[in-house]
UniProtKB/TrEMBL annotation:
Organism of provenance: Aquimarina celericrescens
InterPro entries per record: FN3_dom, FN3_sf, Ig-like_fold
Domain annotation Fibronectin type-III: ranges: 33-122
Coiled coil: none
Name of this chain's protein: Fibronectin type-III domain-containing protein
Length: 309
């Protein structure tokens, strides 16, 4: 029988503890539960919301929908991975089977499945346009945006509107396709789509987009002074920058150990003033840049240096 010293046992336990901290839980013995649609459901709507119970330690869920079922599938109509415990899509009148499993990077549960049928509403107006892209409340610096949505059964055209902050229609287009590229103005714009046929139309489905094409102002470094000689390793950095109208802005600091700015010590999102602890007996070179939510960025501030004795 092997014998272990007290030291080796301590090391073994420590290594196991560290390993456990980085290994995700094995989900193979767990199971999610379907909330809706339940097995045997008959749904009088083409817009279907699939939902299930969360599984602890799961990081995503794989959802598949087959027509008419998985054993004799004529078509896999959906195969997607989501991080939430629900998924929504449009389906035409037919018989379906759906299944879902929980998963993380190293394991997954078994699938749970249920069969259901879809009966299209007799009233076309009660159907719904499901918007797919871009995400709601997108912030972007690109004015040209491709809008996408799912097809609505029996629709022969789609009407798209852009609305300003007063809900006034700024632009209106129609298309037979399920996508269109439009140029959005600066600022916040609501966009909405409805389906139409010869006699009826659905309600509009709406999302918003913020277009911001203006770069933030360049930060101006104030502390520590250029060529400063410091005695403390906890360094207080300060700067000024006037914000511009648009999306949320942030500042980033870049600190290097060489004048050529190749040996990066740290890069952090910061607010003025900020304290950063560095090593003594070193000369540092630093600058700042500003970014915004729409992915605009400022020029870099002037590079300054200081020495810590």
């Amino acid at each position: 029988m092997k014998k272990y010293t007290l030291f080796s046992l301590v090391i073994f336990i420590a290594l196991c503890s560290c390993e456990e901290a980085f290994i995700e839980e094995d989900l193979s013995d767990d199971m999610t539960a379907i909330i809706a649609p339940k097995d045997g459901s008959q749904i009088e709507d083409t817009s279907i919301n699939f939902s299930w119970e969360a599984v602890d330690q799961a990081t995503s869920y794989r959802v598949q929908i087959a027509r008419p079922n998985f054993e004799n599938a004529a078509q896999i109509v959906e195969d997607t991975t989501v991080t939430s415990t629900n998924f929504r899509t449009n389906l035409t009148k037919n018989t379906y089977e759906w299944r879902v499993r929980a998963q993380n990077s190293g394991s997954e549960t078994a699938y749970v499945m249920a069969g259901f049928s879809v009966t299209e509403p007799t009233d076309f107006a009660s159907r719904e346009v499901l918007l797919t892209s871009p995400v709601n409340e997108l912030a972007t610096n690109e004015p040209e945006i491709e809008l996408q949505w799912q097809a609505v059964p029996d629709a022969n055209t789609y009407r798209i509107q852009l609305l300003n902050s007063s809900n006034e229609v700024m632009q209106e287009e129609t298309t037979i396709n399920t996508m269109i590229t439009l140029t959005f103005p600066e600022g916040v714009t609501r966009w909405q789509v409805r389906a139409e046929n010869a006699t009826q139309n659905t309600l509009y489905t709406t999302r918003s987009v913020t277009v911001d094409t203006t770069s933030p102002n360049t930060p101006v470094a104030t502390t520590p002074a250029n060529n400063a000689i410091l005695t403390e390793t906890a360094v207080s950095f300060a700067w000024t920058r006037e914000t511009v109208e648009g999306t949320t802005e942030i500042d980033s600091i870049y600190i290097f150990e060489d004048e050529a700015l190749t040996q990066l010590v740290t890069k952090n999102q910061v607010t003025s003033p900020s304290e950063i602890t560095l090593e003594a007996s070193t000369t540092y070179y630093w600058f700042l840049k500003a970014f915004d939510q729409a992915k605009n960025e400022s020029d870099a501030s002037a590079t300054q240096n200081f020495q810590i004795n």
